[in-house]
Specification:
2 copies of one chain form a homodimer. By secondary structure, chain A is mainly α. The first copy, chain A, has helices at 12-30, 37-43, 48-54, 58-79, 88-99, 107-117, 124-151, 159-179, 188-201. Chain A has 2 domains: 10-61, Orthogonal Bundle (Arc Repressor Mutant, subunit A), CATH 1.10.10; 84-201, Tetracycline Repressor, domain 2. Chain A contains 9 helices and no strands. Chain A binds a DNA duplex through residues 2, 4-12, 15, 36-38, 46-53, 57-58.
Chain lengths: 208, 208
DNA sequence: TTGGTAATTGTGCAAGTGTATAATTACTGC
DNA sequence: GCAGTAATTATACACTTGCACAATTACCAA
């Protein structure tokens, strides 16, 4: 009578990954409210009951999802460095431009970032990851700034302040691009970012 | 038998303010999930039904709460500017400095802002308020930038781009101040912000 | 081929959600 | 004082949520 749906046994790693992916997708699209057990299971091509088989509770699943998200972010921003040019000025300009252009600017990313941001004050593990990610990005930026200044024969003593300001500028532009899609013409933010960096460092960065 | 609880009629403004305060407190403490109609009413010393009497829907209440929060931050950034000399440069510097100093920088405010960012994708009322408050702050900043440039005898045609960049810079610094309290010395962000603006506008802003 | 096992499904439930609405009550103007 | 009115409460409802648990079924080993 009531025919059960057929299924395949997929093993622990596959299923956990699928559930985590579905969770991240849903949070990115509609915020945490949208990530219900039923919606997650549906998107993962699975039945709600299975979630409980791999995660003791839904909180555990969400926590695991955030962990993989953060790990992915750090890896992604590190990988992108190799493709930049060698010339310090062009390298910095490329880095800055990438940070405020697709695919880095993406409403999904901003929504996910906001969701995890909200856990930072309450969750010490989350705070540690946030700190490490932030300082890692800022450190890379500071290195590039130093190299660019050095190549132009300029002193580098205020690089910390410049990196903090530059990082804040990129963060803000990234958020605005993600939170208000359609408010900016394509390439407008990139141009704004590079021009702003040129003035911040008093250097001529190529817009490329 | 069933004795109704006694109450006092408090008038529209009082009640709306109380409900909004309760909403903000709850979201700050436990995220958007914690702000249920019952919890809000309890904290506001009121019955859940009353919410519907002052707000058509719960979404409206949350959006109104976000609006008062953001407008409060904008006003706090503009506070005490009148006491400054009537100099556009000093006014802009004061505004910039305020925006990245206590009480504007505050972990609670950042947490609330992050919480509302997760509501924006699904909640249309929230999206409208977000857009309006963002453009409101940026508009004020752009006005001040224009006045400062004009006072220095400089062209103002690129004020839009400068306002976008300046706003992003302030947003980023504000977020980091709230998310990583203790990472910056008192006054460090203010100094960084004013110096960065000086370079962005190619003007000498007083650090006050 | 056949059990055995664990992955997976389906159903049900108790608690919590936002909202609608009628019943009450405090205050206002006369 | 006294009606009228709007603020406030109380109750009910339809719906969603996370979770528990028994029933099933795909796969594996022998």
């Amino acid at each position: 009578m009531t025919e059960r749906r057929s299924f395949v046994r997929a093993g622990e790693e596959t299923r956990r990954a699928a559930l985590i992916d579905a969770t991240l997708d849903l949070i990115a699209e509609g915020g945490p409210q949208a990530a219900t057990v039923r919606a997650i299971a549906l998107r993962a091509g699975v039945t709600p009951g299975l979630i409980r088989h791999y995660f003791d509770t839904k909180e555990d699943l969400v926590a695991a999802a955030h962990e993989t998200l953060m790990n992915g972010l750090t890896e992604a921003s590190a990988a992108q460095l190799d493709e930049l040019p060698d010339d310090p000025l062009a390298r910095l300009a490329g880095f800055v431009g990438n940070a405020v252009s697709p695919p880095v600017t993406d409403p999904r990313g901003v929504a996910l970032w906001a969701a995890s941001m909200q856990l930072v004050p309450r969750d010490s593990a989350m705070r540690a990851v946030h700190e490490a990610t932030y300082l890692g990005f800022r450190g890379r930026l500071e290195d590039m700034i130093c190299e660019a200044l050095h190549a132009a024969g300029r002193p580098t003593q205020s690089s910390r302040a410049l990196a903090i300001a530059g990082n804040a500028l990129l963060d803000g532009l990234w958020i605005e691009a993600g939170a208000l899609p359609g408010h900016f013409a394509p390439g407008e933010l990139k141009s704004i970012a590079i021009n702003a960096f040129s003035r911040l460092l008093e250097l001529e960065l190529p817009e490329g």
